[in-house]
Amino acid sequence: MESGRCQIISLNEEARKASYAHWDSLAKPLGSLGMLEDVVAQIAAITGNPDVRLDRRTLFVLCGDHGVIGNGVTQTGASVTAAVAKAIGESTSTISYLAAGQNIDVIPVDVGMLPHPDFPGVQNRNVRPGTADLSKEPAMTREECVQAIRTGIDLVWEEKKKGTQIVLTGEMGIGNTTATSAVGSVLLAKEPVEMTGRGSGLSSDGLAKKIACIKQGIACNKPNPDDAIDVLSKVGGLELAGLCGLYLGGAICRMPILLDGVITLAAALCAVRIQEKPELVKEVLLGCTSADREDLREGSCAVMLSVRDVLLASHMSAEPSTRYLMETLGLSAPINAGLRLGEGSGAVAALLLIDMALREYQSAHTFDVLGIEAYTPQG
Predict the structure, then answer these.
(1) Partners of 60 in the β-ladder
(2) Any idea which residues carry the catalytic annotation?
Protein backbone atom coordinates (compact mmCIF):
# COMPACT_ATOMS: atom_id res chain seq x y z
CA MET A 1 0.00 0.00 0.00
CA GLU A 2 1.37 3.42 -0.95
CA SER A 3 0.73 6.49 1.19
CA GLY A 4 2.25 9.35 -0.74
CA ARG A 5 5.94 8.56 -0.77
CA CYS A 6 5.59 6.08 2.09
CA GLN A 7 5.21 2.49 0.96
CA ILE A 8 3.87 0.11 3.60
CA ILE A 9 5.24 -3.33 2.79
CA SER A 10 4.07 -6.74 3.89
CA LEU A 11 5.72 -9.10 6.32
CA ASN A 12 7.92 -11.86 4.91
CA GLU A 13 5.40 -14.69 4.78
CA GLU A 14 7.96 -17.13 3.42
CA ALA A 15 10.03 -16.66 6.58
CA ARG A 16 6.90 -17.17 8.71
CA LYS A 17 6.06 -20.35 6.79
CA ALA A 18 9.61 -21.65 7.25
CA SER A 19 9.41 -20.89 10.97
CA TYR A 20 6.20 -22.90 11.37
CA ALA A 21 7.70 -25.74 9.32
CA HIS A 22 10.66 -25.80 11.67
CA TRP A 23 8.35 -25.84 14.70
CA ASP A 24 6.52 -28.79 13.15
CA SER A 25 9.79 -30.70 12.71
CA LEU A 26 10.49 -30.60 16.46
CA ALA A 27 9.60 -33.64 18.55
CA LYS A 28 6.47 -32.37 20.26
CA PRO A 29 2.76 -32.21 19.45
CA LEU A 30 2.04 -29.76 16.64
CA GLY A 31 1.42 -26.23 17.89
CA SER A 32 1.82 -27.35 21.49
CA LEU A 33 3.67 -24.19 22.55
CA GLY A 34 0.67 -22.23 21.38
CA MET A 35 1.10 -18.45 21.30
CA LEU A 36 4.86 -18.75 21.80
CA GLU A 37 5.21 -20.50 18.45
CA ASP A 38 3.21 -17.68 16.88
CA VAL A 39 5.46 -15.04 18.44
CA VAL A 40 8.63 -16.68 17.08
CA ALA A 41 7.03 -17.03 13.63
CA GLN A 42 5.98 -13.36 13.77
CA ILE A 43 9.55 -12.31 14.57
CA ALA A 44 10.73 -14.37 11.59
CA ALA A 45 8.22 -12.57 9.38
CA ILE A 46 9.27 -9.15 10.72
CA THR A 47 12.98 -9.71 10.20
CA GLY A 48 12.67 -11.90 7.10
CA ASN A 49 14.79 -14.61 8.71
CA PRO A 50 13.38 -17.90 10.10
CA ASP A 51 16.62 -18.42 12.06
CA VAL A 52 15.30 -16.34 14.95
CA ARG A 53 17.99 -15.06 17.32
CA LEU A 54 17.44 -12.56 20.12
CA ASP A 55 20.97 -12.49 21.51
CA ARG A 56 21.13 -8.70 21.71
CA ARG A 57 18.14 -7.04 23.37
CA THR A 58 17.46 -3.57 24.75
CA LEU A 59 14.77 -2.27 27.09
CA PHE A 60 14.09 1.46 26.84
CA VAL A 61 12.35 2.94 29.88
CA LEU A 62 11.15 6.37 28.79
CA CYS A 63 10.70 8.84 31.63
CA GLY A 64 8.65 12.03 31.87
CA ASP A 65 6.78 14.17 34.38
CA HIS A 66 3.20 15.41 34.24
CA GLY A 67 1.78 18.76 35.31
CA VAL A 68 -1.63 17.21 35.91
CA ILE A 69 -0.46 15.64 39.18
CA GLY A 70 -1.11 18.97 40.93
CA ASN A 71 -4.80 18.02 40.89
CA GLY A 72 -4.47 15.09 43.28
CA VAL A 73 -4.65 12.38 40.62
CA THR A 74 -1.75 10.41 42.11
CA GLN A 75 -0.68 9.39 45.58
CA THR A 76 2.97 10.34 45.00
CA GLY A 77 4.80 13.34 43.58
CA ALA A 78 7.19 13.98 40.71
CA SER A 79 10.18 13.24 42.95
CA VAL A 80 9.35 9.55 42.50
CA THR A 81 9.92 9.79 38.74
CA ALA A 82 13.42 11.11 39.40
CA ALA A 83 14.14 8.57 42.13
CA VAL A 84 13.13 5.61 39.97
CA ALA A 85 14.96 6.90 36.88
CA LYS A 86 18.10 7.34 38.98
CA ALA A 87 17.74 3.80 40.35
CA ILE A 88 17.30 2.34 36.87
CA GLY A 89 20.46 4.12 35.77
CA GLU A 90 22.26 2.61 38.77
CA SER A 91 20.76 -0.87 38.11
CA THR A 92 19.08 -0.86 41.52
CA SER A 93 15.43 -0.44 40.50
CA THR A 94 12.66 -3.03 40.44
CA ILE A 95 13.09 -3.54 36.70
CA SER A 96 16.84 -4.00 37.18
CA TYR A 97 16.22 -6.97 39.46
CA LEU A 98 13.46 -8.40 37.29
CA ALA A 99 15.69 -8.23 34.21
CA ALA A 100 18.76 -9.64 35.95
CA GLY A 101 20.23 -12.65 34.17
CA GLN A 102 18.34 -12.05 30.92
CA ASN A 103 21.12 -10.23 29.08
CA ILE A 104 18.92 -7.16 28.62
CA ASP A 105 20.51 -3.75 28.23
CA VAL A 106 18.16 -1.63 30.39
CA ILE A 107 18.37 2.03 29.36
CA PRO A 108 16.37 4.78 31.09
CA VAL A 109 15.79 7.79 28.85
CA ASP A 110 14.79 11.23 30.14
CA VAL A 111 12.39 12.46 27.47
CA GLY A 112 10.60 15.02 29.62
CA MET A 113 11.46 14.91 33.32
CA LEU A 114 11.58 17.93 35.59
CA PRO A 115 15.10 19.35 36.13
CA HIS A 116 17.37 17.04 38.11
CA PRO A 117 21.09 16.44 38.60
CA ASP A 118 22.78 14.34 35.95
CA PHE A 119 21.98 10.72 36.78
CA PRO A 120 24.65 8.25 35.64
CA GLY A 121 23.23 5.74 33.17
CA VAL A 122 20.22 7.90 32.24
CA GLN A 123 20.21 9.11 28.63
CA ASN A 124 19.35 12.80 28.38
CA ARG A 125 16.93 13.33 25.48
CA ASN A 126 14.86 15.89 27.39
CA VAL A 127 12.44 17.80 25.19
CA ARG A 128 10.99 20.00 27.94
CA PRO A 129 10.88 19.83 31.77
CA GLY A 130 7.61 17.98 32.22
CA THR A 131 4.23 18.65 30.65
CA ALA A 132 1.78 21.40 31.51
CA ASP A 133 -1.43 20.59 33.38
CA LEU A 134 -3.51 18.90 30.67
CA SER A 135 -6.72 19.64 32.57
CA LYS A 136 -6.22 23.38 31.96
CA GLU A 137 -4.05 23.73 28.81
CA PRO A 138 -2.25 21.61 26.22
CA ALA A 139 0.29 19.28 27.79
CA MET A 140 2.93 20.44 25.29
CA THR A 141 3.25 22.15 21.95
CA ARG A 142 2.84 20.20 18.76
CA GLU A 143 6.51 20.83 17.95
CA GLU A 144 7.61 19.39 21.28
CA CYS A 145 5.44 16.33 20.75
CA VAL A 146 6.93 15.73 17.31
CA GLN A 147 10.43 16.12 18.75
CA ALA A 148 9.69 13.45 21.37
CA ILE A 149 8.31 11.10 18.70
CA ARG A 150 11.44 11.61 16.61
CA THR A 151 13.52 10.78 19.67
CA GLY A 152 11.88 7.35 19.85
CA ILE A 153 12.51 6.72 16.15
CA ASP A 154 16.14 7.73 16.56
CA LEU A 155 16.58 5.39 19.54
CA VAL A 156 15.45 2.36 17.54
CA TRP A 157 17.54 3.38 14.54
CA GLU A 158 20.63 3.62 16.76
CA GLU A 159 19.92 0.17 18.22
CA LYS A 160 19.46 -1.32 14.75
CA LYS A 161 22.93 -0.10 13.78
CA LYS A 162 24.35 -1.73 16.93
CA GLY A 163 22.90 -5.10 15.95
CA THR A 164 20.07 -5.17 18.48
CA GLN A 165 17.48 -7.81 17.54
CA ILE A 166 14.52 -6.85 19.74
CA VAL A 167 13.50 -3.72 21.62
CA LEU A 168 11.45 -3.90 24.80
CA THR A 169 9.50 -0.83 25.89
CA GLY A 170 8.65 0.56 29.31
CA GLU A 171 7.96 3.88 30.97
CA MET A 172 8.25 5.80 34.21
CA GLY A 173 6.28 8.95 34.96
CA ILE A 174 4.08 9.79 37.90
CA GLY A 175 0.72 10.83 36.45
CA ASN A 176 1.09 9.04 33.15
CA THR A 177 -1.94 6.79 33.56
CA THR A 178 -4.03 9.99 33.62
CA ALA A 179 -2.54 11.07 30.29
CA THR A 180 -2.92 7.55 28.93
CA SER A 181 -6.61 7.39 29.81
CA ALA A 182 -7.16 10.79 28.21
CA VAL A 183 -5.41 9.71 24.99
CA GLY A 184 -7.29 6.41 24.90
CA SER A 185 -10.64 8.08 25.57
CA VAL A 186 -10.19 10.41 22.60
CA LEU A 187 -8.79 7.87 20.13
CA LEU A 188 -11.35 5.18 20.99
CA ALA A 189 -14.28 7.59 21.49
CA LYS A 190 -15.00 6.22 24.96
CA GLU A 191 -15.97 7.95 28.18
CA PRO A 192 -13.08 8.51 30.61
CA VAL A 193 -14.87 6.49 33.29
CA GLU A 194 -14.55 3.40 31.04
CA MET A 195 -10.86 3.99 30.39
CA THR A 196 -9.56 5.06 33.77
CA GLY A 197 -8.21 2.91 36.60
CA ARG A 198 -6.55 3.47 39.94
CA GLY A 199 -3.02 3.56 38.52
CA SER A 200 -0.51 2.89 41.26
CA GLY A 201 -3.21 2.72 43.93
CA LEU A 202 -5.64 5.63 44.10
CA SER A 203 -8.48 5.88 46.61
CA SER A 204 -12.03 6.17 45.29
CA ASP A 205 -11.86 9.93 45.87
CA GLY A 206 -8.58 10.10 43.96
CA LEU A 207 -10.05 8.08 41.09
CA ALA A 208 -13.00 10.49 40.88
CA LYS A 209 -10.58 13.44 40.70
CA LYS A 210 -8.61 11.67 37.99
CA ILE A 211 -11.69 11.06 35.84
CA ALA A 212 -12.84 14.68 36.36
CA CYS A 213 -9.43 15.99 35.27
CA ILE A 214 -9.49 13.89 32.12
CA LYS A 215 -12.99 15.08 31.23
CA GLN A 216 -11.97 18.68 31.85
CA GLY A 217 -8.80 18.29 29.80
CA ILE A 218 -10.64 16.85 26.81
CA ALA A 219 -13.32 19.54 27.03
CA CYS A 220 -10.93 22.47 27.24
CA ASN A 221 -8.26 21.25 24.78
CA LYS A 222 -10.60 19.68 22.21
CA PRO A 223 -8.03 17.19 20.81
CA ASN A 224 -8.75 16.08 17.27
CA PRO A 225 -9.31 12.28 17.23
CA ASP A 226 -8.27 12.18 13.56
CA ASP A 227 -4.85 13.64 14.39
CA ALA A 228 -2.92 11.49 16.85
CA ILE A 229 -0.18 14.11 17.19
CA ASP A 230 -2.79 16.66 18.24
CA VAL A 231 -4.14 14.19 20.80
CA LEU A 232 -0.70 13.39 22.21
CA SER A 233 0.34 17.03 22.40
CA LYS A 234 -2.84 18.21 24.09
CA VAL A 235 -3.63 15.44 26.59
CA GLY A 236 -0.66 13.06 26.41
CA GLY A 237 2.84 12.94 27.83
CA LEU A 238 6.38 13.18 26.60
CA GLU A 239 7.17 9.56 27.42
CA LEU A 240 4.03 8.49 25.54
CA ALA A 241 5.20 10.47 22.52
CA GLY A 242 8.66 8.91 22.78
CA LEU A 243 7.13 5.44 22.96
CA CYS A 244 5.03 6.24 19.91
CA GLY A 245 8.31 6.97 18.12
CA LEU A 246 9.79 3.64 19.20
CA TYR A 247 6.96 1.81 17.45
CA LEU A 248 7.30 3.87 14.28
CA GLY A 249 11.03 3.17 14.45
CA GLY A 250 10.33 -0.56 14.69
CA ALA A 251 8.27 -0.38 11.50
CA ILE A 252 11.05 1.51 9.71
CA CYS A 253 13.84 -0.78 10.94
CA ARG A 254 11.99 -4.14 10.74
CA MET A 255 12.59 -4.46 14.47
CA PRO A 256 10.24 -6.51 16.69
CA ILE A 257 9.03 -4.31 19.54
CA LEU A 258 7.79 -5.89 22.77
CA LEU A 259 5.11 -3.84 24.53
CA ASP A 260 4.52 -3.55 28.26
CA GLY A 261 1.24 -2.40 29.77
CA VAL A 262 -1.54 0.06 29.08
CA ILE A 263 0.69 3.13 28.63
CA THR A 264 2.73 1.44 25.93
CA LEU A 265 -0.48 0.21 24.27
CA ALA A 266 -1.92 3.72 24.08
CA ALA A 267 1.34 4.99 22.59
CA ALA A 268 1.29 2.13 20.07
CA LEU A 269 -2.21 3.09 18.98
CA CYS A 270 -0.95 6.65 18.40
CA ALA A 271 1.81 5.25 16.17
CA VAL A 272 -0.73 3.22 14.19
CA ARG A 273 -2.97 6.25 13.72
CA ILE A 274 -0.04 8.44 12.64
CA GLN A 275 1.02 5.88 10.03
CA GLU A 276 -2.48 5.97 8.56
CA LYS A 277 -2.00 9.66 7.66
CA PRO A 278 0.77 10.39 5.09
CA GLU A 279 0.97 14.03 6.17
CA LEU A 280 1.59 13.02 9.77
CA VAL A 281 4.28 10.52 8.75
CA LYS A 282 6.09 13.24 6.84
CA GLU A 283 5.75 15.71 9.71
CA VAL A 284 7.29 13.24 12.15
CA LEU A 285 10.09 11.85 10.01
CA LEU A 286 11.47 15.16 8.80
CA GLY A 287 14.41 15.79 11.11
CA CYS A 288 15.19 12.34 12.53
CA THR A 289 18.79 13.43 12.90
CA SER A 290 20.48 10.15 13.83
CA ALA A 291 19.10 8.30 10.82
CA ASP A 292 21.41 8.08 7.84
CA ARG A 293 18.73 7.17 5.32
CA GLU A 294 18.00 9.92 2.82
CA ASP A 295 14.28 9.16 2.76
CA LEU A 296 14.04 9.83 6.49
CA ARG A 297 16.01 13.06 6.31
CA GLU A 298 13.65 14.27 3.59
CA GLY A 299 10.62 13.56 5.78
CA SER A 300 9.41 10.47 3.95
CA CYS A 301 10.03 6.76 4.22
CA ALA A 302 10.32 4.79 1.02
CA VAL A 303 9.72 1.43 2.70
CA MET A 304 8.39 0.49 6.13
CA LEU A 305 6.33 -2.25 7.68
CA SER A 306 2.93 -1.65 9.19
CA VAL A 307 3.34 -0.57 12.81
CA ARG A 308 0.77 -3.18 13.80
CA ASP A 309 3.00 -5.90 12.35
CA VAL A 310 6.03 -5.18 14.55
CA LEU A 311 4.11 -5.04 17.85
CA LEU A 312 4.40 -7.98 20.24
CA ALA A 313 2.09 -8.00 23.28
CA SER A 314 3.38 -9.10 26.66
CA HIS A 315 0.59 -9.05 29.24
CA MET A 316 -2.94 -7.96 30.05
CA SER A 317 -2.53 -5.03 32.41
CA ALA A 318 -4.95 -4.59 35.29
CA GLU A 319 -5.92 -1.14 33.95
CA PRO A 320 -9.48 -1.17 32.49
CA SER A 321 -8.58 0.35 29.10
CA THR A 322 -6.14 -2.47 28.34
CA ARG A 323 -8.81 -4.71 26.83
CA TYR A 324 -10.09 -2.00 24.49
CA LEU A 325 -6.59 -1.09 23.32
CA MET A 326 -5.56 -4.70 22.78
CA GLU A 327 -8.69 -5.41 20.76
CA THR A 328 -8.20 -2.30 18.63
CA LEU A 329 -4.58 -3.21 17.93
CA GLY A 330 -5.50 -6.85 17.21
CA LEU A 331 -3.12 -8.17 19.88
CA SER A 332 -3.21 -11.13 22.26
CA ALA A 333 -0.97 -11.37 25.29
CA PRO A 334 0.71 -14.52 26.64
CA ILE A 335 0.52 -13.32 30.27
CA ASN A 336 -2.59 -12.46 32.28
CA ALA A 337 -1.33 -12.03 35.81
CA GLY A 338 -2.79 -8.70 36.93
CA LEU A 339 0.54 -6.91 36.50
CA ARG A 340 0.55 -3.11 36.86
CA LEU A 341 4.11 -2.17 37.72
CA GLY A 342 5.27 -0.52 34.50
CA GLU A 343 8.98 0.10 33.81
CA GLY A 344 8.85 -2.64 31.15
CA SER A 345 8.22 -5.37 33.72
CA GLY A 346 5.60 -7.17 31.62
CA ALA A 347 7.86 -7.09 28.58
CA VAL A 348 10.71 -8.60 30.59
CA ALA A 349 8.39 -11.34 31.90
CA ALA A 350 7.20 -12.14 28.37
CA LEU A 351 10.77 -12.30 27.09
CA LEU A 352 11.44 -15.08 29.60
CA LEU A 353 8.72 -17.13 27.92
CA ILE A 354 9.99 -16.28 24.43
CA ASP A 355 13.52 -17.29 25.45
CA MET A 356 12.15 -20.58 26.77
CA ALA A 357 10.47 -21.23 23.44
CA LEU A 358 13.62 -20.28 21.52
CA ARG A 359 15.66 -22.85 23.43
CA GLU A 360 13.41 -25.52 21.93
CA TYR A 361 13.24 -23.77 18.54
CA GLN A 362 17.04 -23.64 18.25
CA SER A 363 17.57 -27.18 19.49
CA ALA A 364 18.20 -30.37 17.53
CA HIS A 365 15.21 -31.98 19.22
CA THR A 366 13.61 -33.18 15.97
CA PHE A 367 11.53 -36.23 15.11
CA ASP A 368 14.34 -37.41 12.80
CA VAL A 369 17.00 -37.19 15.52
CA LEU A 370 14.83 -39.08 17.97
CA GLY A 371 13.92 -41.66 15.35
CA ILE A 372 10.19 -41.34 15.87
CA GLU A 373 7.39 -40.72 13.43
CA ALA A 374 6.43 -37.08 13.02
CA TYR A 375 3.03 -35.78 14.01
CA THR A 376 0.74 -34.83 11.12
CA PRO A 377 -2.21 -32.41 11.11
CA GLN A 378 -5.44 -34.25 11.83
CA GLY A 379 -7.90 -31.49 10.93
Answers:
(1) 107, 169
(2) 343
